[in-house]
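During the second half of the funding period, the structural biology subgroup turned its attention to how the target accommodates small molecules. The most pressing case was adenosine-5'-triphosphate, which had performed well in the primary screen but for which no bound structure existed. We therefore specified the complex as follows and requested a full 3D prediction, including the ligand pose.
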Amino acid sequence: MNSPADVWAMVLKLMEADMTATTINTWFDDAKAVSLDAKQFVLYTPSNFKRDIILSRYLPAIQKALHELFSADLDVLVLGEGELERFTAANQPPADDNFLPGTEDYTFERFVVGSSNKMAYAAARAVAEKPAHSYNPLFIYGESGLGKTHLLYAIAHTIHRTHPEFRVVYIKGDAFTNDLIQAIREGRNPEFRNKYRSADVFLMDDVQFIAGRESSQEEMFHTFNTLYEAGRQIVFTADRPPKEMLRLDDRLRTRFEWGLPVDIQPPDYETRVAIIKNKAIRRGINLPEPVLQYIADNITSNVRQIEGTVNKILAFQELMGESVDVDTVIRTVRDMCKDKAEFLPSPDVIIEEVAKFYNLDTDAIRGQGRTKDTALARQIAMYQIRRMTNLSLKEIGKEFEGRDHTTVMHSIDRVEKLMKTNPEIAEIIKDINANINAHYDN
Ligand SMILES: Nc1ncnc2c1ncn2[C@@H]1O[C@H](COP(=O)(O)OP(=O)(O)OP(=O)(O)O)[C@@H](O)[C@H]1O
């Protein structure tokens, strides 16, 4: 079935036969199709004056065009200023739990608190217990795998339990961007807006992904204002504080800083021990003290990695049915570290991530695409492959339809220079880097 926007484009085309282009431009330039079903077609124009003219003069023409398209008589509803929000709210499908993250593991009770995360934990709890009372927005930042998503889910679950009537919207920054692109493509902008702007609690994970993306930032700005003015709770997480998001709009940056920015640091030794104990005990296993200490001493920066190690050891213990000794643990931990050191991303993944970042096709990057963006994306991809793999210049050239090794060298040179003079490029490369590494997180 065609989208309402497609149908509206066809209606305009049909009406062109009976109307001048000026008439169409004057009365329909900012009209947008809102919805279409078997009985009704809904149109919106931001001006009440235009709505009245459309209704009094052009309704029969629209109905006639629709009849030609569908061989059926459809009701036509034309919405004016302020009516769109009411219409979408009234016609919205009942709030479902799709927006609510599924996992029950991520609760406050299962979050181990230590000096590195106690501020973030306390702020998240305060927000969950009294939404929109204390910190709004709450902005939690820190490196990957330190518990930001865990806290966000915990907020979602707590509020869902205490206020089942609240609409809790959870979305990742990149999913927001994708959703927006799709909504624009399908002419579903009002639906998109309504989905996010009608939230009682709005949780956005990894908001850094919207930085540098114009339409996402624009949408976020209005979403933020609507929610904030309506007194709704907003929480963001990101891998860095707002002031370090160089490609973020200033007006968003200031808003992100309005409430409480709070960081999560890598856990200290005591917290690491507590996390390991906690994960083991929940699986009904008591790890001997030296084992705990060995893991806590050697896996230091990332809770996700600690979890991975503990899971491996517990699986081993469950399989063998006996208590693990320190030697086995040492071998497991060494293997984990060795895997890390020896792992090299593949050129395919690197090119794929650069392409995704620039919204390009991988073929365009590998091949002959000549736009400014494609050329820069290609140079960045070459630079990243050189930096992240062991490939020679010649081998890198082969990845790009057999380009010469001097071309590769010049590209890498150019990116290195750009990184020194243009902080935005340095930031973009950092982002792409993180996305590439995310493929290999365990
Ligand atoms: N303090 C903690 N207590 C218990 N588990 C934790 C703690 N911190 C993190 N974890 C666990 O570590 C894993 C990684 O955490 P999480 O996904 O929340 O990280 P993140 O900061 O959102 O990372 P990313 O930025 O990569 O999404 C999860 O399984 C989470 O439950």
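Two results from this model are relevant to the next phase. Strands lie at 32-36, 40-44, 75-79, 138-142, 168-172, 201-205, 233-238, 260-264. The chain is about 60% helix and 10% strand.
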